[in-house]
Amino acid sequence: MSHEHGEQKHSSCSHHHGNGDASHESCGSCSHEQPLKQVKHIIAVASGKGGVGKSTFAVNLAISLAQSGAKVGLIDADLYGPSIPTMFGLLDEKPTVTGKNLVPLEKYGVKLMSIGFLIEPETAVIWRGPLVSSAIKQFINEVEWPELDYLIFDLPPGTGDIQLTIAQTVPLSGAVIVTTPQDVALADVAKAVAMFRKVDVPILGLVENMSYYELPDGSKDYIFGNHGGEKFAKVQGLTLLGTIPIDRAVREGGDNGQPCMLSNPDSATSKSIKAAAEEVARQVARLA
């Protein structure tokens, strides 16, 4: 997969965001065929702010959906800070190539693609917007994705080129917004909500992560504030998909390649993630 070629291939194509197929009429290398036609539902997992556990939720959401019997894929769209190789314990694995396309890796029943599989772990991705967009389009069009019930995009924080490229390239079934309860996170999450509404992507709902820490006596310590996500969801008219407590096992599982849905399936956190995943599936089915 040549990212340089991907950028050059489209250098003469005057794409204009928001104009649909009409913007591609003069580009002979662009296909009018809808990408990922073999995928039933495409879900973006997003946040306005980094550090809220978005990738952790995306990974465990994918695993939970796979455990329910669904065929699931996960694209690590955070090109500047890919987490999927670490969280799945695949730091030394590389995808194979068939024809001109990459074959996604698979672990825990989830098909996977990440820029982290293609570069060395210490390599910094220093790309401008057009090259970033080209790489994302290659993950969509130049990977041998099989028939899937769900394909999840783990988006980077913010509201930049990657988010817009995905929203305007594939037919998203909806977006899941991940936040923590404190005001500083919710202020940025509001921008992510506004972006998806502006590009007409349905918002499946809000997940409040790191909602509380359960103390040994059973009481709850609301470290980052109390019910901030719930209040925000009500103000924004969003479905609250779930509240997920803080658990040391979540961090440990993410670091050692054993996500908590597998390493600690009976924990309160894993049960909360499973319930949130079930609600995501219900919201997707409702909008289908």
Question: What do these coordinates show?
Answer:
36% of the residues lie in helices and 19% in strands. The chain has 288 residues and is an alpha/beta fold. The strands form three sheets. The protein has an eight-stranded mixed β-sheet with strand order 5-6-2-7-1-8-9-12, with helices on both faces. It has a two-stranded antiparallel ribbon with strand order 3-4. It has a two-stranded antiparallel ribbon with strand order 10-11. The longest helix has 20 residues, at 268-287.
Layout of helices and strands, plus pairs?
Elements: H1 3-9, E1 39-46, H2 54-67, E2 72-76, H3 84-87, E3 96-98, E4 101-103, E5 105-107, E6 110-114, H4 129-141, E7 148-154, H5 161-169, E8 174-179, H6 183-198, E9 203-209, E10 213-214, E11 220-221, H7 228-236, E12 240-244, H8 248-256, H9 260-263, H10 268-287
Parallel strand pairs: 1-7, 1-8, 2-6, 2-7, 8-9, 9-12
Antiparallel strand pairs: 3-4, 5-6, 10-11
Helix pairs in contact: 1-4, 2-10, 4-5
- The name of the CATH architecture is 3-Layer(aba) Sandwich
User: Could you say what the CATH topology is called?
Assistant: Rossmann fold
Overall pLDDT level? 88
Order of helices and strands: HEHEHEEEEHEHEHEEEHEHHH
Helix content: 25-40%
CATH class, named: Alpha Beta
